[in-house]
Amino acid sequence: MTPEHTRLITALRELRADAGLSLVALAERTAYSKSSWERYLNGKALPPRQAVQDLCRLADHPQGRPLALWEIAESSWSRRSAATPQPAPSPSTDGPPPPPMEAATTEGPRRRLGRSRLLVLLASACSVIAGGVAVVLLFLLLGSEAPRDEPSPASVPFSLAPLCHGTACEGRDPMRLICGIGPDTLATYRTATGAHVELRHSEKCGASWVRTWGTEIGDRVDVTADGPTHSVRVGNAEDAAAFVYTGMTEVTVGSTVRACFRPASADGERECFESRVTEPSARTSSPSVQLGSEQA
């Protein structure tokens, strides 16, 4: 499984968790069977583009980022399939006899050599074109969502286990570090501008962060607990059409996590809310808390 495929699976599993649907429920609401969804979500097969769109619809999630991840994974998958050598056909004993061999002259080897060079050039050109598309998509996607000092995509291992915990997660991207699979939602809030803001928490990573969507270019969200404040700004139309995440902040049971939304409008008010990290058994299924607004 490639790193590109791993990132896609991480996003799909979070979508499924947000939708709150079992594999059976997914099969009932889409054109894909329970066994197909099991293969898609466990990385055994690359899902069709339509399956990704259906999962976004069921989770009420913008399609921009998941489809960009799918485009990257699909391009990588196609290149890998094309590069896999195919076994030579077995000789048949009852078929027509093979064509006569070329005369032992220099013309035959030259002709075969020319064909081989042509095939190599064509294969190289196709790889460059496909690879270029993947690189461009990857640049556009990661350029808007990942901190500049994060490791390159090629360094992300194939494991779906979280890649940090506690202090090691501070300020880092929850999706890149695979803390975004099955997190808890500590609190939800809808701003005066219609944006959605959620306080998210990963017990396995010992960290919390904020995600937001339905935003406008220039909006900003902050998250803070017992340490530094981490912010993210909606920088372009692609950000506004997808989920945007802050960096993570280290938390433990008992920590109070605070999120603030700052609208792009100069005369808009800052809106803040907070939640306390509790034991998993004490968390409600649909938390929501509002502390009010402050003048920006």
Helix content: 25-40%
Distance between the termini: 46 Å
- Average pLDDT, rounded to a whole number, is 76
Give a quick account of the main beta sheet: strands, pairing sense, barrel closure. 5 strands, antiparallel
Structural class by secondary-structure content: alpha+beta
How many β-strands, per DSSP?
Answer: 10
Strand percentage? 15-25%
Whole-number radius of gyration?
Answer: 25 Å
Give the overall silhouette.
globular
Assembly state of the chains shown: single chain
Number of helices: 7
Order of helices and strands: HHHHHHEEEEEHEEEEE
Poorly predicted segments: 91-114, 118-122, 133-158, 285-290
Topology:
Blueprint lengths: L2 H17 L3 H7 L4 H8 L7 H10 L5 H20 L23 H39 L38 E7 L5 E7 L4 E7 L6 E5 L5 E4 L3 H4 L3 E2 L3 E2 L5 E7 L6 E8 L16 E3 L1
Antiparallel strand pairs: 1-2, 2-3, 3-6, 3-7, 4-5, 4-8, 8-9, 9-10
What does this structure look like?
With 296 residues, the chain is an alpha+beta fold. The chain contains 7 helices and 10 strands. It is globular, with a radius of gyration of 25 Å.
Tags for this model:
single chain; 296 residues; alpha+beta; 5-stranded antiparallel β-sheet; 7 helices; 10 strands; globular
Task: Describe the structure concisely.
The protein has 296 residues and is an alpha+beta fold. Strands 1, 2, 3, 6 and 7 form a 5-stranded antiparallel sheet that branches. It has a 5-stranded antiparallel sheet with strand order 5-4-8-9-10, with no helix packed on it.
